[in-house]
Amino acid sequence: MPPAFSALKVGGRRAYRLARQGEAPALAPRRVRIDRIVILGTAWPDVRLSVTCGAGTYLRAIARDLGQAIGLPAHLTALRRTRIGPFVAGADHGLRPPRDLTRAAGLPEAILAPDMAHRFARGQPAACGLRGAGEAAAVLTEPEGVLLGLGRFAGGLLRPHLVLPSGVEVIP
């Protein structure tokens, strides 16, 4: 069951907005994919887990549901995403040339001019030389070669899909 403070839409409005206004959004249970849950350690009352799951899985809801299953209140105190698609935290992806990185991800490169890179990094659509319809692209700055995130083409613009917090420097 998704949490009330989720970005899912209920009647055209985001659930988190309804929840912040004191309304209880009517959310339906969703099917999610959990590939693996491993207990990394326990120090009562904390339990450290590693979860491998599909997109759209609310890990805060998993913590809540695990607590309910054992009859105790539970919540998430920390969350660290270690993998998104082919990008793995701590791996050498940030040290690889952009072409190797985008080839490994199977994505075209969208190189943005500084003003458009600034827009993209703030979560705003940006104009670039590439065009597509729904196609995803790895977004890099020119000339520094900083990976800003992943975008999707829509309406002639590159719209942010995933923006990395500070970008990842790559060797051109």
CATH architecture of the largest domain: Roll
Low-pLDDT windows of residues: 168-172
| CATH-defined fold name of the largest domain | Archaeosine Trna-guanine Transglycosylase, Chain: A, domain 4
Q: How many structural domains in the coordinates?
A: 2
State the shape.
globular
SS content category: alpha+beta
Largest sheet: 4 strands, mixed
Percent of residues in helices comes to: 10-25%
In angstroms, what is the radius of gyration? 19 Å
CATH class of the largest domain: Mainly Beta
CATH superfamily caption of the largest domain: PUA domain
Number of E-type strands: 10
Average the pLDDT over all residues and give the rounded result: 80
Structure description:
With 172 residues, the protein is of the alpha+beta class. It has two domains: 9-83, Alpha-Beta Plaits (2-Layer Sandwich); 87-169, Archaeosine Trna-guanine Transglycosylase, Chain: A, domain 4, CATH 2.30.130.10. Helix content is 20%, strand content 34%. The chain has four helices and ten strands, in the order E-E-H-E-E-H-E-E-H-E-H-E-E-E. It has helices at residues 15-20, 59-70, 98-105, 114-121; strands spanning 9-10, 13-14, 34-43, 46-53, 83-84, 87-88, 109-112, 136-141, 146-154, 157-169. The strands form four sheets. It has a four-stranded mixed sheet. A two-stranded antiparallel ribbon has the order 1-2. Strands 3-4 form a two-stranded antiparallel sheet. The chain is globular and about 55 Å long. The termini are far apart. Residues 168-172 have low confidence and may be disordered.
